[in-house]
Design goal:
With 340 residues, the protein is α+β, with helices and mostly antiparallel strands. The chain is built from twelve helices and nine strands. The strands form two sheets. The chain has a seven-stranded mixed sheet, sandwiched between helices. Strands 2-3 form a two-stranded antiparallel ribbon. A hairpin with a 2-residue loop joins strand 6 (244-251) and strand 7 (254-263). The chain binds 3,4-dihydroxyphenylalanine.
């Protein structure tokens, strides 16, 4: 009997020692001593050799050993839990006095700013916005605008061809034809958007740029209406004192056609660096919609007349903000963009 008691005592001592030293896995200790195949169970199985009087005392003793080990395990479990909590709290300490992360708030690109301003002017005049595809048929980009194959006007608008019938539009003018095909007058639209030309990049050229097209078709529309609108546009964009000059020009889709200059807003016509001493700055192309273009789109030129105009949005932005290199508008350098 003393032999069994001694073994139980050893088991207790050993178990308590191990529990004390363990920092992670208490479960394997529990299994080792108290499990079905554990040390304690094995000793208890040997109780068969004891006499009936001895058994209860040894049984009691064994139960105490079990209870002591269980208590030690539970206590250690709580200690480890507390230790882990403290460790986590120390690691995740939040310093509310630390400087925060700064989020940069963006703003609209100068080209977008200008485009929206221009749109606002024309929306205020009762125009609505029409859109057309950038990947366009040769038909709309040229033929519907009275520019047949081999017409010399194509040379100045060389663009990127996808097939011989499909290209990247070289102007926003094809939107004119698309709108007129779908809608009978009165028509009063603007169409801003990207256009493409196979130009090399320099300070005033880019293979991708933006234009804004205007089209008005109704009964009794005259060149006076065109002048009125372009004058209003000039004064709103460049200042009250801006003057407008029409120079005769040729565009295949308008007749008569004009190139339109605005008096230089920097020197008011005296001549300066901005207007290259001219006193005038070329701003847009315009004219009365050619009868062939009207009839080609299903609008009767005997009943209706119209005017159209088109200009580059980059050019307006560059003049307005005194930007001397177009590339700045596309490079997205924050030192530049951040100024607007
Ligand atoms: N599409 C012409 C160009 O890109 C500009 C233009 C001229 C548009 C006369 C017009 C217009 O609507 O009437 O050079």
């Amino acid at each position: 009997m003393n032999d069994i008691k001694e073994r139980l005592q050893n088991i207790l001592g050993e178990a308590l020692e191990q529990i004390k030293a363990e920092t992670q896995d208490l479960e394997q200790i529990r299994v080792k001593y108290l499990g079905k195949k554990g040390d304690l169970t094995r000793v208890l199985r040997g109780m068969g050799s004891l006499s009936a009087e001895e058994r209860p005392a040894v049984g009691q003793y064994a139960n105490n050993v079990r209870a002591d080990i269980e208590a030690a395990l539970e206590k250690k479990k709580q200690q480890l839990k507390e230790y882990q909590l403290q460790k986590k709290l120390a690691e995740e300490k939040l310093d509310v006095t630390m400087p925060g992360e700064k989020f940069e708030i963006g703003h609209r690109h100068p080209l977008t700013l200008v485009r929206r301003e221009l749109e606002d002017i024309f929306l205020g005049l009762g125009f609505s916005i029409a859109e057309g595809p950038e990947v366009e048929y040769d038909y709309y980009n040229f033929q519907a605008l009275n520019i047949p194959p081999n017409h010399p006007a194509r040379d100045t608008q060389d663009t990127f061809y996808i097939t011989d019938k499909i290209l990247l539009r070289s102007q926003t003018s094809p939107v004119q034809a698309r709108v007129m095909e779908k809608q009978q007058p009165p028509i009063r639209i603007i169409s801003p958007g990207r256009v493409y030309r196979s130009d090399d990049v320099d300070a005033t050229h880019s293979p991708l740029f933006h234009q804004l097209e205007g089209l008005v078709v109704d009964t009794g529309i005259t060149m006076g209406d065109l002048k009125g609108i372009l004058e209003l546009f000039a004064k709103t964009t460049f200042g009250e004192e801006t003057k407008v000059r029409f120079r005769p020009h040729h565009f295949p889709f308008t007749e008569p056609s004009a190139e339109v200059d605005y008096s230089c807003f920097a020197c008011h016509g005296k001549g300066c660096r901005l207007c290259k001493g001219e006193g005038w700055i070329e701003i847009l192309g315009a004219g009365m919609v050619h009868p062939k273009v009207l009839s080609g789109c299903g609008i009767d030129p005997e009943v209706y007349s119209g005017f159209a105009f088109g200009f580059g949005i980059e050019r307006i932005a560059m003049l307005k903000y005194h930007i001397d290199d177009m590339r700045l508008l596309y490079e997205d350098d924050m030192r530049f963009i951040g100024q607007f």
